[in-house]
Specification:
The protein is mainly alpha-helical and 136 residues long. The chain is built from 6 helices and no strands.
C-alpha cells in the first residue's frame, strides 16, 4: 500500500481503525506499519493507506493469523500472489481444525466428568477433583 500523506494524527488514526494508539506504535515497532516522517516542528500525519493497513492487520488477526503471518500476508497485499496467500490460509485452516479437534476432546472429557459429578451419591470423592489429582 502506498502511504499517501494525510491529515490524521496517530490518535485520529487509532480512533478511525478502532484500535488503541499503543496498537499503532506496536505495529510500527514490529515493522508492520511505517512510521511517517515528523515534519520540522510538527507531528506525524497518517493517511488513508495507513488506515487501510491497520484494518488489514486487524482483519487478518480476527481470522486467527499471528503477527508474523500477517507480515507475510502484507508482502502479498498487492493481490497478485493468490497462490501464496491461499497456501498461508490453507496452513491456518489446518491449524484451526487441529485446535477444534483438541477442543472437542476437552469438551468430551469435561462433559463426562460433570456427568459423573452429578451422578455421584453419598460421601464419595468428587470425580472431577479425583481425576485431576490422578493426572499429576
Amino acid at each position: 500500500m502506498e502511504n499517501t500523506s494525510g491529515s490524521l494524527t496517530i490518535g485520529a488514526l487509532a480512533d478511525a481503525a478502532e484500535v488503541n494508539v499503543e496498537t499503532i506504535r506496536f505495529y510500527q515497532r514490529k515493522g508492520l506499519m511505517p512510521e511517517p516522517e515528523r515534519p520540522l516542528g510538527s507531528i506525524r500525519r497518517y493517511g488513508e493507506a495507513d488506515l487501510a493497513r491497520v484494518r488489514f492487520i486487524k482483519a487478518a488477526q480476527r481470522l486467527g493469523f499471528s503477527l508474523d503471518e500477517v507480515s507475510e500476508l502484507l508482502m502479498l497485499e498487492d493481490g497478485t500472489h493468490c497462490d501464496e496467500a491461499r497456501g498461508l490460509a490453507e496452513h491456518k485452516l489446518h491449524d484451526v481444525r487441529q485446535k477444534l479437534s483438541h477442543l472437542r476432546r476437552i469438551e468430551s472429557a469435561l462433559t463426562e466428568l460433570v456427568d459423573r459429578c452429578v451422578a455421584r451419591r453419598g460421601r464419595v470423592t468428587c470425580p472431577l477433583i479425583a481425576s485431576l489429582q490422578k493426572a499429576e
